Amino acid sequence: MRIAAGLIFAGAVSLLASSAAWSQTPPAKGAAAPQAAAAPAPAPAAAPAPTRPPCNNPNALGIGRTVEIDTTGGPGFGFEHFKELDFLRDKEVVLTFDDGPWPVNTPSVLKTLAEECTTGIFFPIGKHATYYPEILKQVMAAGHSIGSHTWSHAALVNKKLNEQQRKDEIEKGFSAVKWALGGKSPAPFFRFPALQHPPEMVTYLGTRNIGIFSCDLDSFDFKASKAQTIIDNVMRKVEKNGKGIILMHDFQKHTAEALPELLKKLKAGGYKVVAMRAKTPVQTIAQYDEDIVKDLKLPTVSSRPVSSVVQTISE
Question: How many domains does the chain have?
């Protein structure tokens, strides 16, 4: 069930023309949630524009337009919950991917996007980012926008979580992504797990100048048992709507399998991909940055070379 937000912050969208899971969880890192949030650091400098390798495919889907997002006040995107900012033109789509990074599946999605010289927004889970930072760095290196999808994919509408624990989920997620990216702050783009928006957390994100992403159409790829179902779902909905922000999951095997054919169908249908870039990176909170580093310094499995651990003494 989708729970609509009770409060939506309006934000400015500056349009710039351009040419062109909850999860199967590895052994936990043992993180205790911090209880109080320190004040944000001074505002960061303007975000550098993501760079992409040159396109060598003349028949690629490509990027039709790039928009720059000013997230002041926490604007909301995606008509499933937010109606104010209708910035997409007819036949324009935004590709979004949740719940990564994940081995095999995320690299496969990246490979397909690169082959089609196009781009998406990735909303990684903080824990997954700490498990596979090198995969998330590949997402950054390919020039995609990266936001956050909480620390552990906890449902923030869960009444067992108090307000501070909900804030911790949001802030630890961003700090974990920042750590995984080698200290580079991600975009101030956030998506609630299961698109469930507690009104007080919508308000909180507004005070933090973080944009909220719902969607215009859900692929329901997490329910699909085969790739063709995902392709059919997306194409049926996008043809009905004429445009939209598409929700997918790079965590899902069938999504990675479906993406090559899906992008070809979008191109054949005359659809153009819109890249969404943040005007400035997110301001993470120092306490959460420090807590992530402390958690990661807990005892781990030895990384000594095999030769220094195991030696043949007889054969």
Answer: 1
